[in-house]
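# nightly structure sweep
# worker-07 picked up a monomer target from the shared queue
# config: single-sequence mode, recycle default, output format = structure tokens
# input follows
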Amino acid sequence: MLEKQLSYKERVYKEIKNGILTGQYPPGSVMNERKLSAELGISRTPIREALQMLARDGWLQMEIYKGAVVREFDPHSMWELTRVRCALELSAIEDAVRNLTDADLLKLRQIQEKQQALLSHYNPDEFISLDRAFHSYIYQLSHNKELIKLVSNYYDMFRFLGMQALGKTEQRRATTIAEHRAILEAMERRDPEGAIQAMKAHMDETANNIRSNIGLEP
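# output follows
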């Protein structure tokens, strides 16, 4: 019975979070337990538990009189997230370069080439998915369990930021590919400092692009 309850809770968590990411539940939406229970066909207990988890992870805010409300990522919060991501990415790339094998480099090259191929027939979900795959593989190569645990909690928020950074202009998508290539080339040279600098340049450009697209202030 416990396993069943846990699966329901996780299902609700994932469905609501995906709804937030895709705009089904825009910022300010009130997540009514009774309505969600009817929509998903399950009891209110796992609904309540999932909403608490989403609030804990920063997707919802608990407000007096309203209850669980979809969080609005204001410019300051988004700027804070870009700073967190930059710190995590730089730490990951430094460790990853020291653990590389030729097979790892091939895997990263394949991801990079698939993402580049999408420039001619752009699909935002696929492009973001490959972008995430590139960075996620670098995290795996760091072999830093605590770092990987941290990023697992943040990555959907980074995906949200990525949509802001990549979805608006073809030019930014192309420069993202070029920045990934620079990171990969430094990794192929087994050059930790060069890889760190290339990742820093990539994070800086991502932050600048988000700022120009949505009026984000540092």
